Amino acid sequence: PLCGALAAELLALPESLKAMTKDFFEIHLTWLQENIKKGQDQGVLKPDLDVITVSRFILNALEGASFVSWAMSDDYEKSSGFDLILAGILRSEA
Amino acid sequence: PLCGALAAELLALPESLKAMTKDFFEIHLTWLQENIKKGQDQGVLKPDLDVITVSRFILNALEGASFVSWAMSDDYEKSSGFDLILAGILRSEA
Fold it and tell me: Do B68 and A54 touch (CB under 8 A)?
């Protein structure tokens, strides 16, 4: 959400802030990658997920969610599709 | 991609164009909903998908993808996660 707000203003940002936004996304990606790996190690997440691809996909989906819900003036929580992401990455035999 | 570019400039747009961007998303959502329904009717897509939720999720994910890849200056095609979306909605018994 915060990075969504930042990213939304990207076009209007000076170069230094564009680099910051990129760093910000990188931080999110690194966090996602570490935690998906942890989840796999603990047997909570599907072991066959590609950590890099899935992390980027989650970032995309949540960035897009904050963005679209803002354009549509509706509820981010209800429209983020986070349940669908979870359903896609959790091990089903729980 | 086009609507991503539009949406990215949303903050800077006058009210009339904000409404257009919203309409633009609505057109995408309607198209997605119709085609997911068709895909279900033809037995290509999973029959238990919630059409509204999944359509919004696809829009979110692809908007986010165009947005994040632009901020990261990398390749939209390679990072959109479209394969993951397909894997999530196609009937597996194919």
Answer: no
